[in-house]
User: Fold this.
Amino acid sequence: MVNEIEQARLRRARRMDRAALTAIYDEYYPPLYRYIYHQVGEVETARDLTAELFQQLLQALHQSNGPTQNLRAWLYRVAHNLVVDYFRRQQHRRHLPLKEELVSQADSPVELAEKNIAADKIRAALAYLTPDQRQVIILKFLEEFSNEETASILEKPVGAVKSLQHRALAALERTLNRAKEKML
Amino acid sequence: MTNNIAETLDVALQRLQAGESLTAILTDYPAQAEDLRPLLHSAASLESVRPIKFPAPQTLQNDRAAFITNIEHFQQQAVSQTPLIRLKEQVVHLFPVFSTNNKYGKEHRRMSTLLIKTAIVFSLLFGTMGGTAVMAANSLPDSPVYPLKLAMEQTQLALTRDPAQQGELQLALAQKRSQEMLQMALQGDVPPEETGVRLQQHLQQTMQLAGELPEQNMLGLLTQVQQMTQTQTQQMSQAQAQASAPAQAVLGQAFQYMNQVGEQAMGGIENPHSFQARFGKNKPVDDPEPVVEPTEEPTTEPTGEPTVEPIIEPTEEPTAEPTEEPTAEPTEEPTTEATGNQYNKNETPEPGQFGQNCAGDEADCEPVEPQSQHQQNQNLNPGQDCTESGECEPIGDEHKYGQDDTVDNSGPHNDNCTEPDCVPAGDENKFGQEPDPVPQPADNGQGQQNSGGGSDNSGGGNGRKG
Assistant:
């Protein structure tokens, strides 16, 4: 039933129906922004990439080349490609992203600093993973997708997602250990 | 083992996300606890990056407004630029396998599609080209693809380097032209004259190439020429009965020419050296205005049209008296008078003039064709001393220049003969007159008349010196 509603909305979106497209934007903007932000760690960058993602959706639907079955999977794949392209460009530019301050009124300065340090370490370690490994980690542990949903977005079997998850956590653990050894 | 640990890790992670403690989970997997512990710790540490900072609400509103503006922008655009693109998009929508767009992910990307498209493109491309080539190869001169056929033949000729193979190829092309003319005539069409010209050119090239080949190869090629011309002339004679009048005329010309070439080929088979001298590398160069190098003996090789009947009759006013310098300078400009001779004007070799370029060994040089009028003009050179046109016969080599056998050319002759029945002196083997050790002064009478008679067939070379 949900799939039928999704399909009907997608058909309207292919006809450039404003209401359908706005509904899609409202539903998918937050998770896609989060997904991108988890990887790039910058508000402005995440915002720009998310806006570009929806722009590409409009172009694709207008040219009849957009999603035909699974809109969410299509959106996450495009988001993944945008992030990969972004990191590729960043490698050439040698640009160091500005650190985003996660300000919370409830945190004390000490707690805030500790959280920021921990988050920075994790983000730095995530950057060492392969794109597929990073995508699995974010989708499963930060977006809390199931194995099946993750497999659908990655277009891989569930068993492959589990193996990818195992290798990603092992790589993350090794990276964090090396960082800890350097600190000592 | 890896699969097992991956499965166990997945179950343990689900229990961890459900809120179970790490100790409780590891207790259930004692054998794999050491492997699972760091992995579960890493997964738990990811909670530190969960907090997200969103842009300001106003910024989000602006982004949303910009998205809606983009929607309106796309709504105002045409669905697609052309009906063809719309059709393509409709097809792609119904059959996603035909989609070529891979910009936005893997949804429509299939290697099989690319392979199928590539195969179709290649088959269409080469299939069409091959079909056109086959069609052109069987085309007739009135076909639109006939120029392609000729171009392919020219390419084939250009790629053939061996003279023997070139000769065979030229002969094969000549046969093709002949067959084309036959087919068109039998279909009720009139073969274009260009095809006949091409036929002659191919045969001419074949004969020239044959003359440049070693004797053994030359004989083989000439045999083929002789057989081909025989076959084609037979077919042409049969086709002429069924062809229209204009087609008959065209076929008749081709028939006549191939007959000549066949006879020349036969002559070449019987006398290879003569043929090589005539068509080989040492053959004389045909110039529009023949300029014969001064030699001891006047060059009298004819180059006129072979089909003209020989004219043996002397000129209106034959020169009874020897010219001023009969043979002392025999060939200083022996053929200058040719500029006024209608046959010498045809020095440009027309197809069918094989055998006119006799050069080299005079003994071997025999005109293949019936002696032309031009030949007769040359023959008149030695004996133009006669002043009477009635019975005066020019003197020359009877074997070479077609002189009347009734005239006795042997022995000394009277150089000053003025009587109708006199015979001017001359070298019996050459040009009639014995060289006079003391050149006689120029006689401005008859000799000059001869020289001025450019259009006169009797305008012999000796008279020209005046």
